[in-house]
Amino acid sequence: KYKMILDLDTGVDDALALAYAVGAPEVDLIGIISSYGNTLVDIAAQNSLDLLHLLGADDVPVFIGESHSSTTDHFDVMNISQLIHGKNGIGDVTLTPSPRQVEKETGVDFLIRAAHDYHEDLILVPTGPLTNLAAAIKKDNQVAELIGQTTLMGGALTVPGNVTPFTEANIHQDPEAADFVFTHQKNLTMVGLDVTLRTLLTKNETAEWRHLNSEAGEKFASLMDFYIDAYYNLDIDKRGAALHDPLAVAVSIDPTYITGLPLNMRVTYNTENGDYGRTIGDKTQLLAPTTSKAAVLVDTDRFVKDFQNMMLTVLK
Ligand code: BDR
Ligand code: CA
Q: Inosine/uridine-preferring nucleoside hydrolase domain spans which residues (predicted)?
């Protein structure tokens, strides 16, 4: 069985990614690292603990990651993030507090240790900024070679960004870390807005979660409905809300959900022409071998159906 680590800035779609990974029989979820983004790092960690408790997965440890990018001295949650994910990151839904605490070991040290323990059996799925992975590689450069595969949610190659015309939110939080990861980490798959915006969930599906008559079904339906309402009210998409983060988890388990374009990529930053945080092919590496790819197409119907079936099982 593959060992999976999630690196989450636990907002609404991160919560879905967590549920998907808890339910997936193919993987053994060995830990969750917490990141900043949709909310502050400590709140993200608490959300992960409480969600695991709700799902009866109290055996999965939660580690605290970096609280901000290494190019800034602190992090403030963007207004727009609070509108989409609520003030507490999970749609302002109150969960029963987990009886557990976060681990003493830092998220970065846990990732380094797991890379050495599991090598190619380790799957990493970051669905927030890439700060923790970059910090782990900077501390121990073997990490970049050791991790079996990394499937990240972030970036936009063939469609506009959601923060700026070029920049997706996770990359926008820490483009320096993202560029470092893109140029160092082996076996990288970018699951960006190119594909995640094609996987939408509606209140038809969350109504079915509610009909399970379980606490998990009720809570997940409430937090997801908050996010679907935000997509509607902010006119991001009136048809439904994007399954960004769970798609990355699904692709890490079954890459046939997507069509990947092999490409050596960079992330631009420190530029003055407005392309801060853009994910783009590396012009100097067009003839070089590739170990990374960008998802450009997705089997929408199959994924959304499989996702819904997974949720109906996990939320029972
Ligand atoms: C990404 O940004 C966060 O708001 C979401 O959780 C997702 O990981 C989408 O751009
Ligand atoms: Ca996220």
A: 4-304
